[in-house]
Amino acid sequence: MFEKIKVDWFSNIKGDVLAGIVVALALIPEAIAFSIIAGVDPMVGLYASFTMAVIIAFAGGRPGMISAATGAMALVMAPLIRDHGVEYLFAATILTGVIQILFGVFKIAKLMRFIPRAVMIGFVNSLAILIFMAQVPHFIGINNMTYVFVAITLLIVYVVPRFFKAIPAPLIAIVALTSIALYSNADLRTVGDLGAITQSLPTFLIPTVPFNFETLAIIFPYAIALAIVGLLESLLTASIVDDMTDTTSNKNLEARGQGIANVVTGFFGGMAGCAMIGQSVINVKSGGRSRLSTLVAGVFLMFLIIVLGELVVQIPMPVLVGIMIMVSIGTFDWSSFSYLRKAPKTDALVMLVTVAIVVATHDLSKGVIAGVILSAIFFVAKISTMKVLKQEEDNQITFQVEGQLFFASVDAFVDAFDISVEKKNIVIDFTTAHVWDDSAVGAIDKVVMKYRENHNQVTIKNLNAASKKLVDQLAVFNDPKASTH
Amino acid sequence: MYKRILVAIDGSLHSYRAAAEAVKIASLDKASKVELLYIADFSKAKKEVLHAQGKAELEQVRRGWIQPAEDLMKENLIDYEVKILHGDPGPTIVDYANKEKFDLVVIGSRGLNGLQEMVLGSVSHKVVKRVNCPVLIIK
C-alpha cells in the first residue's frame, strides 16, 4: 500500500511538478473558452477544471492523465443552460457523476471497448467540427481587427513552439495580445463582455433547483449524455496515456473516479468535465507521469486565477477563438481521409454517419449511439451470411453448412435447402458452422422435419461441443414424441 | 569491432537501408549484436490508438514496421534483439544509446516525414549531435 502510494505520487517529483505547471498554464485559455461554448461564466469552467483535476488526482484510475472542463461536455450541456439556467447545470453535473460512479461500480465502463473504432474516429472528428463551429459567431463579421487578432494568434500558436517550448504557446499569445489590445485600445470584444470573473476559491453549494420529478426529467437526459460522452473521451484518453507511458490502467476505477470528481464539481459550482486528450498529451510530453502532476495542474490553476483574475476579463475574444481553432485542428483526426479510402465501406459509412448526426443534432452522445447501432447492424449482416454447399452422390445428399447460425441467419439457412427431394439419405454437416441460439435450433428442426415428411433419412453430424449442447437441449427432431406435422 | 550496434527503425526505406548496412558491419564479427529500436512517437499516439482496436493490434502494427529489418537480420544470421520505446524520437534514441552504452548507432539520414524534418531538423541530425558513440548515417 505504502509502496503503491510512493509510485503513484512521488516517483517522479521534478517532472510532475514542472509538467503540472505547464498544463495549468495551457488549461486556462481552454477552460475559459469551453465555458463560453457552454454559455456560462468563465468561473464555472475554471472552478470545474480545479476541482476535476484535484479530485481525479486522488480518485482516478490513470495516473498522469489530466481531467478538467472540456469542449465535448460543454457542447452537450449548452442547450440545458440556454433553456433552464446554470443551477440546472450544477444539478445535472452531480447526477452525471452519480451515473458514472454506477458505471464504474457495475463495470459497465469496460464495455466501452466494444465501441468500434469507426465510431471513435467519428466522435473526435465531430467534436473538432463542433468546437470550430462554436467559434464562428465570435469572429465572422464583427470587424477587421477581430480577423487580424485571430490570424496573429494562430501564427503565434503554430510558429512559436518550433523555437521555444518551455511556456505553452497559447498562453504566450494571450499575454502578448492582451497587452497589445489594452495598450492600443483596439476595438475587440473581451471575455469580460461574456461573463464575470471572481477571485475566490469555489465554495460548497447545493444547486437551487426544485427537488422534484420535473427537475429530474429535465436534467436526466443531459446527465446520461454527459456521462456517456465524458466516459468515452476519458477512456480514449486513458488508452492514449497507457500507450505513451507503456503502462496499463484500471478503466472501471477511472469511470468511478470521473464520477466522484463530477459530483464534487457540481457541488462546488463547476460544469461537468472529463479527461482531456490534448492536455494529457501535453502533460506526458512535459514529463508528467504520476498523480502528482494532475494535482499540481489543478492547484496551480487555482493559484493563477486568484492572482491573475482581473486580467482574465481583459483577454480579447479573438485570441481565445484562435486558440480554439488550434484545439479543433489538433482534435480532428487528419488520417480520417486515408481511412475513408482504405477502411471497409461499412466502417467508413459508420464514421460519416456518426459525424453527420452529431453535426446535425449538436449532441455527441446521439452520434455515438447511432454509430454503435449502425455498426452492430453491419456486423450482424456480415456474419449472418450462410453458405450451404450441396454434394450429391447416388442416394445420398450431403450439405456442408458454413457460417454462424443465429436469429439473423436462419432464413438464409432454411432457404438454402431444397426440400422437395424424396426418399434420399440426407447428411447435414456442421463442421464449419456454429449454432448460437434457439432460433438456430428451431431452423434445424424445421429443415429436418420437412425432409422427414418426404420420407428422407436425415443425419446431423460434426456439431461442435457448444452447438451440440444447445441442439441436444432444445431440438425436437430427436424427440420420438414430436409429431412431424 | 563493434560489439553492440543500435539501429533506429521507423519504417522508412532509409531505415531499412540502415539495417542492411548494420548487417554488413555485424557480419564482420561473430560477437556483434544488433538491436533494432523502434520509437512509438508521442505525437502520433492519439492517431495510432484511435485507429487500433486495442493494445494487441497496436503492438502488431509496430512490430510490422520492424519486420523487414528483422528479416534482414535473420537471413544473414545476425544476433539481434527488438526494442520498442515510447517518446519523442530524437531525444529517446539519444538517451537510450547513451544509457545502454552502445558501440555504434546506425540511422537513416531521413525518416518517414521529409517535409516535417525540413522544418524541425532531422532526427539523424539530433542523434549525431548528442550521442556519445560513433554514428553511421545512411543515405
Walk me through this protein's architecture.
- The complex is a heterodimer of chains A (about 475) and B (about 140).
- Chain A is built from 19 helices and six strands.
- Chain A has helices spanning about 1-10, 15-40, 40-60, 70-85, 85-105, 115-140, 145-165, 170-185, 215-245, 250-265, 275-285, 290-310, 315-330, 335-340, 345-360, 365-385, 410-415, 440-455, 465-475, and strands at about 65-70, 275, 385-395, 395-405, 425-435, 455-460.
- The termini of chain A are far apart.
- Chain B is α/β, with parallel strands linked by helices and about 140 residues long.
- Chain B has one domain: Rossmann fold.
- Helices cover about 50% and strands about 25% of the residues of chain B.
- Chain B has helices at about 15-25, 45-50, 55-75, 90-100, 115-120, 125-130, and strands at about 5-10, 35-40, 80-85, 105-110, 135-139.
- A five-stranded parallel sheet of chain B has the order 3-2-1-4-5, with helices on both faces.
- In chain B, helix 1 (about 15-25) crosses helix 3 and helix 4 runs parallel beside helix 6 (about 125-130).
- The longest helix of chain B is centred in the middle third of the chain and has 21 residues, at about 55-75.
- The mean pLDDT of chain B is about 90.
- Chains A and B meet through helix 6, helix 9 and helix 11 of A and helix 2 of B.
